[in-house]
Amino acid sequence: MSSAVPQSVTRLVDEFSRLPGIGPKTAARLTYYLLRTSSEQSLALAAALTELVENTRTCSVCCNITESDPCSVCTDDRRNRRVICVVEEPLDVIAIERTATYQGLYHVLHGAINPMEGIGPTELKIEELAQRVGAGHPTEEIIVATNVSLEGDATASYIRQRIKTVSDKVRVTRLARGLPVGGDLEYADTITLLGALEGRREMLD
Ligand SMILES: [Zn+2]
Q1: Model-level pTM greater than 0.90?
Q2: What CATH number belongs to 65-202?
Q3: What confidence category does residue 85 fall into, taking pLDDT thresholds of 50, 70 and 90?
Q4: Closest to 177 measured CA to CA, from 201, 143, 142
Q5: Which of 63, 139, 160, 181 is buried most, with the most CB atoms less than 10 Å from its CB?
Q6: Cα 121 to ligand 1 centre (Å)
């Protein structure tokens, strides 16, 4: 940006530009919007960001984002502890909860295996899942709900192999086809997601 732009403005534009889906133009528009609006609104945004960083952590059981550890799902006695649904991102948990049908627990991987971007199994929360299942947890089924993509499929296969090394009693299933290919689970509509959950199949060799 030109030297006519104050440095504090440039800094916020740069920060916005680093967010997914926000290009330089949108970043500048957001920044100038905040300059025009009341200072209360801008300070509320700043306070919300600080609170987000200071008050959230990952659940030590399921690795979802939470303010209390273990999270409200992991500590909910009404949930079915014999089933764990494995998803790539916290937003996928929200998508599955929206179906209002699934009653089991979750495990959030925080990504998918992607060799092109240098993301291997150790960068994900897969070992945490294996430990959970291996530590006498009453798991009977693991539903792998990774995205329908090369990365999601590779991650599902890896998880199945890894789980088989800690327990041969656990059924590893995968959501039925019908979900948008290449799309994130979070964008699937509730009916589609419900159908994919109900039509899940055991992963075989
Ligand atoms: Zn949890």
Answers
A1: no
A2: 3.40.1360.10
A3: very high
A4: 201
A5: 139
A6: 20
